[in-house]
Every structure is written in C-alpha cells, then in structure tokens.
Amino acid sequence: MEEINPMELLRSNLYRVRIPEPTNRIYKQECCLSFDSPRSEGGLFVDMNTFLAFGKGYVVWNYEKTGNPVYLHIKQTKKLVPEDRPSKKPTLLAIGIDGGFDNNEPEYEETHSIVILPNYVALPFPSVELPEKVRLAVDAILMAEGAERKEQVAAWTADKKQISAYAMELRQIGSVVVPPSGWKCTKCDKTENLWLNLTDGMILCGRRNWDGTGGNNHAIEHYKETGYPLAVKLGTITADLEAADVFSYPEDDSVVDPLLAQHLAYFGIDFSSLQKTEMTTAERELDQNTNFDWNRIQESGQEVEPIYGPGYTGLVNLGNSCYMAATMQVVFSTHSFCRRYYMNQSLKMAFETAPADPTVDLNMQLTKLGHGLLSGKYSVPASEKDGTAAPVITDAKQEGLPPRMFKALIAASHPEFSTMRQQDALEYFLHFLDQVERSNAVKPELDPSRSFKFGVEERILCSSGKVAYNKRLDYILSLNIPLHEATNKEELEAFHKIKAEKISEGKDVSSDEIVRPRVPLEACLASFAAPEEIPEFYSTALKAKTTAIKTAGLTSFPDYLVLHMRKFVMEAGWVPKKLDVYIDVPDIIDISHMRSKGIQPGEELLPESAPGSEVESSQPVANEEIVAQLVSMGFNQLHCQKAAINTLNTGVEEAMNWLLSHMDDPDIDAPICHGAQGAEASVDQSKVDTLISFGFQEEIARMALKASGGDIEKATDWIFNNPNTSASSDMDTTTSSGSVPTPVDAGLPDGGGRYRLFGIVSHIGTSTQCGHYVAHILKDGRWVIFNDNKVGASINPPKDMGYLYFFERIAS
C-alpha cells in the first residue's frame, strides 16, 4: 500500500478546517472530557473544526464521533529556572497580573504541531509549507483568549474606591490637635489599628476580627453613638494622600476624601511629614490572604499526613471557590453519586450521549468530575516550583483538579456562582442538587439527588380542635441552635464576669480564655419538632382568626441526611451575626421519633372554605405587626402583606426570607387576589397552552401556574419539584375536601432512623459570603481533611464546629 504524503493528507482534509470567528469559544487549556492539559504527558489536541480540546487518550473518541481528523497539538514543557530567582512581594490582591502574587510558578515552553487522525500523522508548526488556511486558523486559535480564561475572572482586585457622599459637606467640630506620633485609643490601651474620626478628632481602635485580633470596636461604636461618618486610619497618611485609608461608616466601604488634606489640617496634621506605619484595609486583606492561618479551628496547627490515591484528590481553588470544593468532595463521597457518575458510567459512554458541545452537558461534566476525583489519576503530590520534577511530600498539597468547566456550567443558571466572590455552601449545595434533578428528569430512577430528598409534614392544630396537614419536599433539615440549652452554663457565667472585668480595665480577653456555649445536637433536633404558636391563623372552622399550634415531622428518611446549623442570625436592626457556639454532635444519631404519624384516628380536618362564603373570610389576613416591622425596614406595604400571608403569619423572619426570595416575582406588584374565582381567573390560557406544549397535562399546568403566580419558569420548577402530583390532587394541603392526594414523598428512599456521621463542611469567617470552607470526610475508617487541593489524615476533626453535617443511614 502506497504511503500517503502528510501534506497531501492535510490538503485532502482542508474542508474540515475552520478559521475561528471572534464569537467562537476556543478551548485550549483543558480537555473537555478529562483534566488533561497542555502540560500533561500527551499534551492537548484542539479540534480545528469545533475548537474543543481533548487529551491524548480521548481525542480518538472525538474523531470516531465527529469524523474531524485535523487537530492542533499543544504541548508545554517545564523550563529550568535558576534556584536563586528572587520572589516578588505582591502589591495587589490579585493573581496572574503585574503586582499580584508571585507563586513562583514554573515557566513553560510551548510547542505546536498539526496532527491528522486516525494515524497521528504530524506536521510541524510554524511552517511556510502549511496551507494558508491552516496557518490562519492556528494563529487565530493561539492568539484567542481561551474560553476557560474568559469564564474565570483571573484577578482578585478590589473595586475602585468611590468619592464619599459625606466628604464635601463634612462638618468638623472641637479644637483637638493630633500629635504626629504616640497615638493611643481614647477608650482602651490599643496602640495599633487606630482610626481618627474626621468630625471630632477622636482617636479610637478599629474592629475586632473574627479570630479575636484587631481592635475593640471603639471607632465604629463611636459612629453609632454620634453619627460622625468618616474616619482615616492613622499610620496610612503620607504625602501621597490617595493612598490613605479613609472609611465611611454609613457607606460601609473604603472611600476617597477629596478634601482630606483640608480635613487633616483642621486637627493640625501636616501630612507631608508623616511616615507610613500601618497597613491599609486592602493591604491587611492581602496580608491575611498571604499568611492565612486556619489552625485556630482546623487541626490545631499540627502537621497533616498527606494521602493520595482514588477518592483522595484535591480541588484547586479557582478564587474563593472553596464553598464548591468542600461541597463536591462530600457529595462524591456518597454511594449514589459515585455509582451514577463513576462506577456505572464511563467517560466514553457520557461523551457518546452528550450533545455536540460536551462542555455544556451536566451529565458529561459530572462524569468528568467524578472520574477525576475518584480514579486517583490526578491524586499526585504537587511538584516543586523550582523547575524540577521532584515531588513535595512534606505537606498534603496536591496538584489537584481545576474544575473550571464544571464551575462555569453550574453557574450558568445562577449568576452569583459565576463571580469570584465567596458564596454560601448551603445555597450552592441546594442549587447543585436542583440542577442534577433537572438533568435526570427523563430518567428519574437514575437521579442521585433523590438520595438526599425527604418529605416534611407540618400539622396545624386549630383552637377549634380540628387540624390541617401541609407537606413539602426538602433536601436539608435546617436547625435553630437553642443557646438556652447549653450544657456549660456555669462556665459561661464565670467567663462573662471575667470578660466584663477585663473590658472595664481596658484589657483584652485572650483566645485561650474564651468560653463558648456547648449545645447538644439533640436539643437542635428537638427544637425542630417542638410545638410552635401561629398567631393570627385564619381558621376555616371558626371563620375567624385564632392562635394555632404547629408541629413538624418527617414523612420519609433519606439515604443521606444533611443538617444545616443556623449559625447566622439577625440581631436588632437586622444586622447579621454569627453565633460563636459549639455543637456537640455524636457519631451516631437516631431520629426515629421525628417520623410524622399523619392523620390520626379521631382527628377532624379543617374544612375547605365554602364556595358561597364571603371573599374576605376565605383568605388569611396579613398580621399587621409583621407587616409594620417589614415596612419599617423600607419594604413595600403590599409586598409585606403578601410575605405575611404566604408564610401563614408565622413570624417576621419567615416573612423576610419569603420576601427576599420573591422580590423578582412578576406578580409581586399585583393586588392580593381573594377567592377561588379570582385565582382561576389569574391563570393565563396562553401560558397553560405553553406548558401543555412541553408535554404536561392541562390540569397540572393550571395548578403549577396558580402555585407560581402565573410565571412559566416557576411553574415548570413547581412541576419538577412535585413529580407525583396528579390532576385530581390539590396543592399539598390536606383538609376535608374528600379527595385523597398523592403523597408528595411517593417513590423517595426511606428506611430506619439511625444515621452515622460521615461528612462535615466547616466555615470560618463572619458571614457565609466571606471566610473559608473546609470539608472533613470519614473514609476507609478514618477522618480525612479536604482543604482545597490539600488532602491529609485528620488529627482532630472539628465535629463541634460544622456548618453542614452529612449523615448516612445505617442499614437495619
């Protein structure tokens, strides 16, 4: 057989080569099916027709599926770097830009060639002998910014400071003269982190950090007492006034004061003679990121033994993505997700069933992530950053997986998760499970998210003696923390006395002196099931408002039970506060007593509202106290009334949560519709027809639109979240209508109530939108810490400091 000339072979396939346009997404940093990159042993192959990238072991699958034979091969080889290369000190909170962090990343030399499949015939690039179309296509691919980069904000730079609205008209009072040095807080002995109030010249210490360091909050307390808005941090004032750290309390941000020189001169400060001695807020943030010390809550600073192998693969932090890393490590430690996306589905199987672009297919990307985490292929020590290939085995840091495609895909339907900001791990977990359920809607029996789902039943006892039952489905059990149930009350009282004495003396309480409340998990579970009063409940039996008693229980027990500890509460003025508390969590719990018993013999259900009854009396009425409190916070009166009604007047916090999650509802400004006839009339027939065209039954479409206020997208969500709803069933409220509704938890996994703790997601920081998340998982009989791309044997897992607890049901 005559051998074909490589150049002739390329020319015969030119019709398969495309020159990318500006709108094309070009992948050239990561394989679509694996975590191979140009630095991998086989390099990366970019399809010159679709611009998708594939690793050496996967490119033939793409050739077999698409028939595209021409690929740009990209290979990066590490350069040798001198051992004495100096490290640059960062001046910006950024990565990958001038002035940002210098990670001592090794430099790589990149080579290119044209490869023609199936025989991997290679032609060198660059070469003038290559056809012009190929040369133009390769140049465009290499010059384009990769799709992976476009979807990842590369730098962590703070927003540009704005001019304060309070600067130009700032009133200055008093006759204080501030000395050029020797400053001390007016209210305590602090000599660092001092702020000069630009209204009255008071020098006060800054805020106390989450870890106990910093000031004593005297500067912000002074603002709360006086309302004086601006303060400048002493020690940051130099001849370069733009670099001074000015903070606006009412704007809650670092700001620019254009008249700072004038405002300082009022207190006798000659800024040209001052030397910088303190870090600005941005520099302190930078310093904290450079020298982050998690030892206060994680592993007590002890050396962690690194672990490698299948199931022990770290995830690279893509920039505040630890909430995703911690959550996904626990999720892929469950049998349900392991079976669905690893054991029962190969990468090739997922690719063959994926659409033309596998980067937008959740099934493909979950299979890619599952194989990456569980195969052990990428669980290798991080290479030293000095240009050699010798692995570092002195800590638990790995090369790890950078889950860029997965992050971008999950974030596509939730804009907050596409940012580089920290997010709430709980919110991410719920959004992730929702996406998984949708992707498995065609074959719900394959849906691994069902292993987390369970039914909740609320029993409402009216003062008439009659009852109503409301049912819903949930993925997590969210628990209040009853601080009054603390088991160390005597120690707490003694600590508060010592703390008060030290504060009165202007002294700090050391971290080893702090005593935190210890609340048993059993008390948190008991608070969930405890009876709760519902004031202003409208009784259809009494045809009047009354006080009802609500209790809750579970109608099914999931394979995996997730407990969410409500550590973030609202203080006076609706200021969020994190509870500094320990939860004593046993390794094994039994929630059998929490199973709902359903309608009991002799119980009489509350009647449905009679068709002929008055319109006003057939609907619940908003509790005026709840409405008044919400209105005082600046919310619209109508919105507040709807929030109270839709939460059955349970309380301000519940109404507030409803309001915040329904602000964008299309009917939020529509008048409150009374009566069944009005509800029927509110259903737009064209929207019903749209849902019918999706394949849903007409009656179910009407029910969904009624339940979602006429919004098609929310109606679709309602149908997916109530898969067992039948056309003959009403919503999810059991009253004496005579019909027997299909149980909302039909088909869900169920079993005994004994569970074993196997996963903990811990959080450190003042709110869920900042700080850091770490996962601890029980694997092969020992606890393992997953801290981004660090994986090691846990010495002291923080069982009492979790934010999310994951339990696995013990087989009876």
List keywords for this structure.
alpha+beta; Herpes Virus-1; Cathepsin B, Chain A; 6 domains; 9-stranded mixed sheet; globular
Layout of secondary structure:
Elements (H helix, E strand, L loop, with lengths): L5 H7 L31 E4 L5 E3 L3 H8 L3 E9 L29 E9 L4 E5 L6 H12 L3 H4 L11 E2 L30 E4 L5 E3 L12 H9 L3 E4 L12 E3 L4 E4 L3 H6 L15 H10 L14 E2 L15 H10 L3 H9 L3 H7 L8 H13 L29 H8 L13 H15 L14 E8 L5 E8 L2 E3 L9 H16 L13 E3 H9 L2 E8 L4 E11 L5 E6 L2 E4 L3 E4 L3 E3 L3 E3 L33 H9 L4 H10 L5 H10 L14 H6 L3 H9 L4 H10 L4 H10 L11 E2 L19 E11 L7 E8 L2 E6 L2 E4 L8 E8 L3
Parallel strand pairs: 6-11, 15-19, 16-22
Antiparallel strand pairs: 1-2, 1-3, 3-4, 4-5, 7-8, 7-9, 9-10, 10-11, 12-28, 13-14, 13-18, 14-24, 17-18, 19-29, 20-21, 23-25, 25-26, 25-29, 26-27, 27-28
Amount of beta strand: 15-25%
The CATH superfamily name of the largest domain is Cysteine proteinases
CATH architectural designation of the largest domain? Alpha-Beta Complex
CATH fold descriptor of the largest domain: Cathepsin B, Chain A
Active site: 322, 772
Keywords: Hydrolase, Metal-binding, Protease, Repeat, Thiol protease, Ubl conjugation pathway, Zinc, Zinc-finger
Domain UBA: 621-662, 682-722
Protein name: Ubiquitin carboxyl-terminal hydrolase
Architecture overview:
With 812 residues, the protein is of the alpha+beta class. It has six domains: 6-81 and 106-157, Zinc/RING finger domain, C3HC4 (zinc finger) (Herpes Virus-1, 2-Layer Sandwich); 158-278, Herpes Virus-1; 321-382 and 396-451 and 757-809, Cathepsin B, Chain A (Alpha-Beta Complex); 454-557, no CATH class; 624-662, Helicase, Ruva Protein, domain 3; 684-720. The chain is built from 22 helices and 29 strands. The strands form six sheets. Strands 12, 15, 19, 23, 25, 26, 27, 28 and 29 form a nine-stranded mixed sheet that branches. The protein has a six-stranded mixed sheet with strand order 6-11-10-9-7-8, with helices on one face. It has a five-stranded antiparallel sheet with strand order 2-1-3-4-5. Strand 17 and strand 18 form a beta hairpin. Helix 8 (322-331) crosses helix 13, helix 9 crosses helix 11 (362-374) and helix 20 (685-693) crosses helix 21 (698-707). It is globular.
